[in-house]
């Protein structure tokens, strides 16, 4: 039986295992290596907090292109909808992230019990520390178990802990400094009364602020980032994504490019998006459709940009793109709006300049963006919510460190994951693609521009799936997955 090793058991890892087993013409031995007790959770869906929700509706959360409504059905049929009536917003559902993680785990178990190809799907609870890739196959080295020999390896690790900004590093190890807000019981350090500083103003900040407001209503929360940008709202009347999102994400000629075929620079793209938004607003709509058109065309638009244009986008436009891209779930936005209105949450554009541990807490010095004035304040707790570390060298993952050091993989030139080709094969230090090592999930963003949302991950993985199966079939020898 030919073998596949999937490295990482979050959403991307489950999606790869389930789809390979569904599409393969022959039985495969599919091993998902994941150190957690169960698969499907990862960082994104590991939270147990009932107020941490998916920031998109259930209709765009799916494992397979062939059945995009499965999670929506599961959510209603398993009782999650009845237990969580607040998840309903208009005609759609914004489910708890924990519920989506439960769904993924159940789908993995169901595929392991029965799948169209008769493949053997297993979860190996361990950590991959290194791998060797050759023309004959892949040897995957584990921390605790014997190596696994396979015909294909798929790297799906993502969402590394946030990097601690240099100005906050003097606080490392101090009680009350939360460097990773997704660590279990991280917020236990928040006192019943006091002041909390959140560094970062994106969706992670919103989740942390919602939890503190619910559990510690007498705590004052301040949030800051260099630009003070916050996630945008959904349309006032939201019934789910417009049009056929699957068709948009899988076509090689998206409607956005049909309208703007000459948009080949960042400036061209910005003008085109603004023109689309202006037309939508003039027609009685909102900015969302104009923005979504370029977002869902990213798999074609981004690779066509010259390297200098990609770097220009990352340097100048990425923060604005992301706050329009990653929007509040409406339930979360209501809480944040109330907290801003009553002053229990404040948000400011400032740059951190210094941080010190004091007997009465943490002294934080920041320079305000609007007037350049330096301000020093003391906080009881500081929470780092700057988002996942995207650079492989800085992620703290020993596997990525080993692979980069040996030239098996190379970092994307813009710091957006790893270098890959258009079929998700890893590109090594010599510039050669290796089809035996594929990259799926957020680490593929540097190639496709968009690879964070569930539909984008599934669409790009589905593009590469036939090639993955060809690589497995064309193996020079049948490698057995070790017991």
Helical content (DSSP H or I, runs of 4+) = 25-40%
Strand order of the largest sheet: 10-16-11-12-13-14-15
- Give the uncertain stretches in residue-range form: 476-483
Q: Report the β-strand fraction as a percent range.
A: 15-25%
Distance between the termini: 13 Å
Largest sheet: 7 strands, mixed
Q: Mean of residue pLDDT?
A: 93
Counted beta strands: 18
What is the SS-derived class?
alpha/beta
Count of separate DSSP helical elements: 15
Radius of gyration: 23 Å
Q: Which term fits the overall shape? A: globular
Structure description:
The structure is a single chain. This protein is an alpha/beta fold and 483 residues long. It is built from 15 helices and 18 strands. A seven-stranded mixed sheet has the order 10-16-11-12-13-14-15. The protein has a six-stranded mixed sheet with strand order 5-2-1-9-18-17. Strands 6-7-8 form a three-stranded antiparallel sheet. α1 (11-23) packs parallel to α4, α1 (11-23) crosses α15 and α5 packs across α12. The longest helix is centred in the last third of the chain and has 20 residues, at 454-473. The chain is globular, with a radius of gyration of 23 Å. The relative contact order is 0.17.
């Amino acid at each position: 039986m030919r073998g596949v090793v999937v490295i990482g058991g979050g959403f991307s890892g489950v999606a790869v295992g389930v789809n390979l087993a569904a599409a393969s013409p022959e039985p495969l031995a599919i091993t998902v290596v994941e150190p957690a007790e169960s698969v499907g959770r990862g960082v994104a869906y590991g939270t147990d907090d009932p107020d941490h929700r998916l920031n998109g509706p259930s209709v765009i959360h799916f494992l397979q292109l062939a059945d995009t409504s499965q999670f929506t059905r599961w959510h209603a049929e398993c009782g999650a909808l009845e237990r969580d009536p607040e998840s309903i917003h208009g005609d759609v559902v914004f489910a708890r992230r924990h519920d989506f993680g439960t769904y993924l785990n159940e789908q993995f178990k169901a595929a392991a019990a029965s799948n169209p190809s008769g493949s053997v799907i297993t979860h190996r609870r361990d950590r991959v520390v290194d791998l060797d890739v050759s023309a004959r196959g892949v040897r995957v080295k584990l921390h605790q178990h014997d190596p696994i020999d396979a015909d294909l390896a798929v790297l799906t690790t993502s969402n590394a802990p946030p990097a601690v900004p240099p100005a906050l590093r003097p606080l490392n190890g101090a009680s009350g400094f939360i460097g990773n807000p997704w660590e279990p019981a991280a917020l236990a350090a928040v006192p019943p009364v006091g002041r909390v500083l959140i560094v970062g103003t994106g969706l992670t900040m919103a989740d942390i602020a919602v939890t503190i407001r619910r559990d510690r209503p007498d705590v004052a929360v301040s949030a800051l980032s260099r630009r003070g940008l916050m996630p945008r709202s959904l349309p006032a009347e939201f019934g789910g994504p417009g049009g056929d999102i699957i068709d948009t994400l899988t076509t090689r000629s998206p409607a956005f490019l049909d309208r703007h075929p000459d948009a080949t620079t960042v400036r061209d793209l910005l003008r085109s998006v603004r023109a689309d938004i202006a037309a939508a607003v003039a027609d009685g709509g909102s900015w969302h459709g104009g923005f979504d058109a370029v977002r869902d065309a990213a798999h074609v638009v981004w690779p066509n940009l010259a390297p200098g244009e990609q770097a220009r986008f990352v340097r100048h436009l990425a923060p604005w793109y992301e706050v329009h891209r990653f929007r509040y779930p409406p339930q979360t936005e209501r809480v944040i709006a109330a907290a801003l209105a009553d002053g229990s949450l404040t948000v400011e554009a400032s740059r951190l300049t210094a941080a010190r541990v004091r007997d009465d807490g943490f002294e934080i010095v920041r320079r305000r963006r609007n007037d350049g004035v330096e301000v020093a304040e003391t906080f009881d707790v500081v929470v780092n919510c700057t988002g996942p570390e995207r650079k492989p060298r800085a992620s703290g993952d020993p596997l990525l460190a080993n692979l980069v050091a040996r030239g098996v993989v190379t970092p994307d030139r813009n710091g957006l994951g790893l270098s890959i080709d258009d079929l998700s094969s890893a590109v090594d230090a010599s510039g050669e693609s290796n089809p035996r090592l594929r990259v799926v999930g957020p680490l593929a963003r540097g190639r496709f521009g968009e690879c964070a949302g569930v539909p984008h991950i599934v669409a790009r993985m589905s593009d590469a799936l036939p090639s993955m199966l060809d690589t497995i079939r064309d193996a020079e020898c049948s490698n057995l997955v070790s017991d």
